[in-house]
Design brief:
Blueprint: E1 3-8, E2 17-22, H1 30-40, E3 44-50, E4 56-61, E5 66-67, H2 71-85, E6 89-94, E7 97-105, E8 111-116, E9 121-124, H3 127-137, E10 151-154, E11 158-164, H4 167-171, H5 177-187, E12 193-197, E13 202-209, E14 214-217, H6 221-233, E15 241-247, E16 255-261, E17 270-277
Parallel strand pairs: 2-3, 4-6, 11-12, 13-15
Antiparallel strand pairs: 1-2, 1-17, 3-4, 4-5, 6-7, 7-8, 8-17, 9-10, 10-11, 12-13, 13-14, 15-16, 16-17
Helix pairs in contact: 2-6, 3-5
């Protein structure tokens, strides 16, 4: 296999979220994909197989498990594909559904990709699950922002949304990894979206990812899409609007995610970012 390595949601290789990309995984079995992702060690590695119509089947593997959808590996894959085949529209068939991605070239030569998620939705987070989640995070109910209620959001993968009223609380991440991992496994949650609202359209986020075998994800496109759906579904933004999400800052890998929220209640959420190859 030709394994490419990209960093997504940053133009700086020292920022963003690294992803492995295999643009031609035809004939590669699941066990080999899983072993390859574990060896690479990034939070996700994407494997694609071309269909006759030019669209791609894509699968995402963390070092420990397969996930149905991954935003940063999608952005990385789209930019890697554009470097070989040119920019334009690409349709990806993911485990969560079809995800169109459009790439374009900026005046400085960098390539940006925009994905459109599957239809987002939210569900309630039970009091018992919230209490267990807060205990694993070593947070208290007093840390929460009452304006952003805890829920579980989906736009290809499930992410509890837990908002804090203080930026300092977000900066101080020290959770019980085994306890949180066990809870997330029982509930099939992919990451925990911890967020702080700086302004109406600017947010800061951190995403614990113990099911993937990593403490924290530096940039989480799937969670960003789910969060956009959560905000729209709860009437917490006035669409159409565009959000800026800063992630990875507290772990030394600054990432920038741009989230477009259209008006339609069932329309997919747009997540935009750049990606650059790692040498």
């Amino acid at each position: 296999m030709d394994i490419l390595r990209y960093v997504a949601f940053s133009s700086d290789p020292l920022g963003g979220n690294p992803a492995g990309v295999v643009l031609d995984a035809a004939g590669v079995d699941e066990a080999t994909m899983a072993a390859t992702a574990a060896e690479i060690g990034y939070s996700e590695t994407a494997f694609t197989v071309a269909r006759p119509d030019g669209s791609l089947d894509i699968r995402y593997f963390s070092p420990q498990a397969e996930v149905p959808f991954c935003g940063h590996a999608t952005i990385a894959t789209a930019v890697a594909h554009a470097s070989r085949h040119g920019v334009g529209r690409l349709l990806l068939h993911t485990g969560a559904g079809s995800v169109p991605v459009t790439t374009s070239t900026a005046p400085d030569g960098s390539v940006t990709a925009t994905l459109v998620s599957v239809e987002p939705r939210t569900t309630d987070l039970s009091d018992a699950d919230l209490a267990e989640l807060l205990a694993a995070l070593r947070w208290s109910a007093a840390d929460l922002d009452p304006a952003l209620p805890p829920q579980v959001a989906y736009a290809g993968a499930w992410h509890p949304v837990i908002a804090t009223a203080e930026r300092a609380r977000l900066a101080d991440l020290d959770y019980d990894m085994p306890e949180l991992n066990a809870l997330m496994a029982r509930r099939s949650w992919t990451t925990i979206a911890l967020v702080y609202r700086e302004s109406e359209t600017v947010f800061h986020a951190r995403n614990p990812f113990p099911p993937g075998g990593v403490v924290e994800d530096p940039a989480t496109g799937a969670a960003a899409a789910a969060f956009g759906g959560y905000l729209r579904g709860n009437g917490l933004v006035a669409p159409p609007t565009v959000l800026t999400i800063h992630q990875g800052v507290d772990m030394g890998r600054p990432s920038l995610l741009t989230v477009g929220i259209p008006v339609g209640p069932s329309s997919g959420i747009e997540v935009t970012g750049t990606a650059v190859p790692l040498s």
